Amino acid sequence: MKTPAKVTIIVIAALIALGIGAILIAMMNQPTAAAPESSSDGALPGTRSNTHVLDDAGADAPTLVEFLDFECEACGGLYPVIEQVREQYRGDINFAIRYFPIPSHLNSMNAAIAVEAAAQQGKVEEMYSRMFETQTEWGEKQTSEAERFRGFAEELGLDMDAFDAAVADPETQTRVEMDYAEGLDWNVEGTPTFFLDGEKLELTQLTDLTDALDRAIAG
């Protein structure tokens, strides 16, 4: 069984440094619910065939899925902590991301479309990381940040003609909206929301997540 001791220390330090106690409050009182299996066609629980799996430990490993919004402050604040959890459990769990752009966030859809366009060139994780690492620079802006996101694509060395075509393609936004619609079907009410092996997690503190991962691995 994995011990959460090391990651707990990291989490506590991150919470103090980032001041993200409010994130925990936002994640509280989310009822545990099973995701409707009939609406998922992916090889892993809680995923579809087009879901982006960032850590692949195999079909027999537990699968953690995060519904996220790249403009969400809670997602941005939690991002470095989730990265530590991913490192702690690397090789033992699958980790996948799904889009849930909150309509009140002006650039959340633009960001998701840019990430999806980068994914078409094999750079989903790089763009995912860039979005959260720079969120404080563009989050909550009342004008489009699409040109900034295009700059990220250039920095990542993407084929810009292909990137621009993907951004302009209505199917790219449709892909994002598919995740959002399914999230609503699964009672996702805000971000971040996590599912472990298809079951919505109720998190009141971050050790609830690591404890759940430990039980899933042991089981």
Tell me what you see in this structure.
The chain is an alpha+beta fold and 219 residues long. The chain has a single domain, classed as Glutaredoxin. Helices cover 51% and strands 10% of the residues. The protein contains ten helices and five strands; from the N terminus they run H-H-E-E-H-E-H-H-H-H-H-H-E-E-H. It has helices at 5-18, 21-27, 73-88, 108-119, 124-133, 135-138, 146-155, 160-168, 170-185, 206-218, and strands at residues 52-55, 63-68, 94-99, 193-196, 199-200. It has a five-stranded mixed beta sheet. Helix 1 (5-18) packs antiparallel against helix 3 (73-88). It starts with a helix and ends with a helix. The relative contact order is 0.22. Residues 2-39 have low confidence and may be disordered.
Write the layout of secondary structure elements.
Blueprint: H1 5-18, H2 21-27, E1 52-55, E2 63-68, H3 73-88, E3 94-99, H4 108-119, H5 124-133, H6 135-138, H7 146-155, H8 160-168, H9 170-185, E4 193-196, E5 199-200, H10 206-218
Parallel strand pairs: 2-3
Antiparallel strand pairs: 1-3, 2-4, 4-5
Helix pairs in contact: 1-3, 4-5, 4-7, 4-8, 4-9
